[in-house]
Amino acid sequence: MKRTLLVLSLALAGLMPLAHADVSNGHALPPGIAWQQGDVPAAFAKARSENKPVFLYWGAVWCPPCNQVKSTIFNRPDFIAAAKQFVPVYLDGDSDNAQQLGERFKVRGYPTMILFRPDGTEITRLPGEVDPQRYLRTLQLGLTTVKPVKSLLADALAGKPLAADDWQLLADYAWDVDQGQIIPESDVTAALVKLARQAPAEQAATATRLQLKALAALAGDKQPPEFDKAEARARLLNVLADDTLSRANADIVIYAAADLLKLLGDAPLRAAFQGQLQRLSNDESLAWSDRLGAESAVLDLYKAEHPKQPLPAGLVADIKSKVAAADKASANPYQRQAVITAAGELLADAGLLAESDKLLQGELKTSHAPYYHMLILASNAKARGDKAAALDWYQKAYQAAEGQATRLQWGASYVGNAVELAPQDAARIETAAQEVFADAAKSDSAFYERSRRSLERVASRLKSWNQDGKHAEAISRLAGQLNGVCEKLPAADAQKPVCDGLVKSLKS
């Protein structure tokens, strides 16, 4: 391996140079901003010399939400102007040592966007699926705040008074990508519930957003704390009845609808959601990805309420119409990567598999990440019961995938689906796993963060495939191949025990 944790820690402290990452894909970022591409130490050194914050963007070329951020935020003149106030650094998940840096900064999901002080203190994490105006307001608040969000949270939970802007930062913090940075993940729901109760009533918009985030957290918690369901339902109905409030919190209304209905659902609430989601799907001020997201939520609610009934002709026609309009309106490659993905999945969820296939296949020659669309094509084939076609698409997606972490992630998907769909095809499964382990040998951070989890999934699926011992010889060969990767790691490399553990799990 090129670098160990010791070298990384020295580089992050600015004591050693770290090579500039080669992000060769020309679609990585829109123009207009002088990004430090992957060179995190250089970004912090520059920030210290200019006394500016650092803006870290962690993403991937293929990631649909990342492409939405690029097409709705990063290309805006006001964001480009704001970028002069900070040092922007782009950490692509496939750059050299990106997954290693991902563990360092506790970033996992794409996209994650963080503001740091020049000394490396984290200020705040910015939300990715929000209206651009809200995003820019949150960014500006982060640039001017006196205290980082972690301190603001501690003050708020302790009952100390906060300024209006401080409450706004807490309300718009990206809790979904916190990864235990400002509070243990197990405590997030309780913290949001307490913040929602303590938010000043005179700051109605901020209080409403915190209340909605608390409800979304409660809905996603396996063991939520006690709360007043009647009061929560009444508040939610009030939001859904108000188009302005719903539009201001469209990210929560759209993407938490199903979970909130499971938590609080009754007929009036379901009807209110259906009506508001339909209005949001027709709201031309929303990005097309979000409009399709609202349409998808409408579809999900109908299917949940009528699980055995065919879709109404009107709903099917509306879905087809929305997809056609989104396709026509989406011009730049970032927008299309987000929109066509959402459209293809929406068509598939509506049972319109042929239409989904046609849309996605038409995009393969022009998309800068066609391998993502291939995964949906594979899923469509699986839904039709065509296992052979599904496996062919999973294989094609893996073969087309580019980048260290991406290849391991797509390879894990191929191996897992080969085990599921064709467990009898031992040659295919062994060959696929061999290719994944060969990719791991080429990577300098194969056993960190997302790449580590990809390899853990491969090992887990191979173990389940061999649970009856019928494939012991193939597993032995694969364990030997992976052990060869481990043996090349320096003893001091933090990746070595992870790699050795995977070999041991294969053998056990």
Question: Class by helix and strand content?
Answer: mainly alpha
- Helix proportion range: 55-70%
Portion in strands: under 5%
The largest beta-sheet arranges its strands as: 1-3-2-4-5
Shape: globular
**Straight-line distance between termini:** 27 Å
Descriptive report:
By secondary structure, this protein is mainly alpha-helical. It has 26 helices and five strands. The N terminus is likely disordered. Helix 8 packs parallel to helix 10 and helix 23 packs parallel to helix 25. A hairpin with a 5-residue loop joins strand 4 and strand 5.
Structure described in brief:
This protein has 26 helices and 5 strands. It is mainly alpha-helical and 508 residues long. Strands 1-3-2-4-5 form a 5-stranded mixed beta sheet, sandwiched between helices.
Top keywords for this entry?
disordered N terminus; 63% helix; 26 helices; single chain; 5 strands; globular; 5-stranded mixed β-sheet; 508 residues; mainly alpha
Topology of this structure?
Blueprint: H1 5-12, E1 36-37, H2 40-50, E2 54-59, H3 64-74, H4 77-82, E3 87-92, H5 98-105, E4 112-116, E5 122-126, H6 132-144, H7 149-157, H8 164-171, H9 188-198, H10 204-220, H11 229-240, H12 243-248, H13 250-255, H14 257-264, H15 267-281, H16 288-305, H17 313-329, H18 333-349, H19 353-361, H20 370-384, H21 387-400, H22 404-421, H23 426-442, H24 449-465, H25 472-487, H26 495-507
Parallel strand pairs: 1-3, 2-3
Antiparallel strand pairs: 2-4, 4-5
Helix pairs in contact: 3-18, 8-10, 9-10, 10-11, 10-14, 11-15, 15-16, 16-17, 16-18, 17-18, 18-19, 18-20, 19-20, 20-21, 21-22, 22-23, 22-24, 23-24, 23-25, 24-26, 25-26
